[in-house]
Design brief:
Blueprint: H1 2-30, H2 40-46, E1 49-51, E2 73-75, H3 79-85, E3 98-100, E4 105-112, E5 118-119, E6 134-146, E7 155-165, E8 180-181, E9 190-193, E10 197-206, E11 212-217, E12 220-225, E13 228-233, E14 236-241, E15 244-255, E16 258-259, E17 263-270, E18 276-280
Antiparallel strand pairs: 1-2, 3-6, 4-5, 4-6, 6-10, 7-9, 7-15, 8-10, 11-14, 12-13, 15-16, 15-17, 17-18
Length: 291
């Protein structure tokens, strides 16, 4: 009895296995497998390069000995790379704005009559003890600020023109197109970085009973020697008589060699009763005296 039950169970198991196998094969025939979503071709496309699948070339002509296979490769540029390539194209910059600060002032310097240079180190001794070519003078300095606005050039090359006027707003000579910035090198043109300030030498005058001002113009002198030549800064001095002046200063910035719009500022320098140098607004209309 038990043998018959065991044989029946075995037959049922065999039939079930056969039916399961047939069912799986029929399902696979009706539903072929889909391509994998993480194929190497798709992974390369994600990195920016799309490669066509490899096709093996099988010549049909047995007499052909040389066959060249040239697969097609499509290269796509990622969006971030395109954006990076556009960085080289600069949009127009914001206007470069300079300001005359309220730190316009009169300082005391030593003046070397042999070289025309200014001595900025303070001197606490008696003036009569100085060498004959050294004089203590007052220097009127105008300070300018390059405003650090968004989009401006990080730095510009800046020089200045100076035009002196009398109390009636009449132009005085000479006109200075080569002024001097107040630094150790006495530069005619300086590199002006955004957010920085620099002082311009406007005029020199005596400390006691001044009868006029001295305009300080940039100039050089070439010295020749056995080993070549040296170019030295030797500023020119121009006497202008009077005690009440209006000074017009034009800043002339350049981006490399490209000139930018000039910017104009006005100042007033009076020598009596006490020296005073201040920034002022635009000049009065013609016919109106500066009083």
């Amino acid at each position: 009895m038990n043998d018959r039950i065991g044989c029946a169970i075995l037959v049922i198991a065999i039939v079930a296995a056969v039916v399961r196998s047939i069912t799986i094969k029929e399902y696979e025939r009706q539903h072929p497998p889909l391509p994998s979503a993480s194929s190497p071709s798709q992974q390369l496309t994600q990195t920016g390069v799309s490669v066509a699948p490899h096709n093996e070339f099988k010549p049909t002509n047995a007499n052909t000995n040389t066959n060249t296979f040239q697969p097609t490769v499509n290269v796509s540029v990622p969006v971030n790379q395109v954006s990076h390539q556009r960085v080289g194209h600069r949009e127009p910059n914001a206007p470069s704005v300079f300001e005359a600060t309220d730190n316009t002032r009169i300082v005391t310097y030593g003046f070397d009559g042999q070289t025309g240079h200014l001595i900025r180190e303070p001197y606490y001794g008696r003036e009569e003890d100085l060498p004959d070519h050294i004089t203590i003078v007052n220097a009127a300095l105008a300070q300018f600020h390059y405003r650090h606005d968004a989009g401006v050039e990080p730095s510009l090359h800046v020089s200045a023109h100076l035009f002196a006027h009398d109390s009636d707003r009449k132009p005085l000579k000479p006109l200075l197109y080569h002024t001097v910035w107040d630094n150790q090198d006495l530069d005619r043109q300086i590199t002006f970085s955004a957010g920085k300030v620099h002082d311009l030498i406007v005029a020199l005058f005596r400390r006691v009973n001044p009868e006029g001002i001295v305009l300080y113009e940039y100039a050089t002198e070439t010295l020749s020697h056995d080993f070549g030549t040296d170019v030295l800064v030797r500023p020119k001095l121009h006497d202008v008589k009077g005690t009440d002046f209006f000074i017009k200063i034009e800043l002339t910035p350049k981006r490399w060699n490209d000139p930018l719009p000039k910017q104009t500022f006005w100042f007033r320098l009076t020598l009596e009763p006490e020296p005073e140098f201040v920034r002022i607004g635009a000049p009065a209309p013609a016919g109106v005296r500066f009083r």
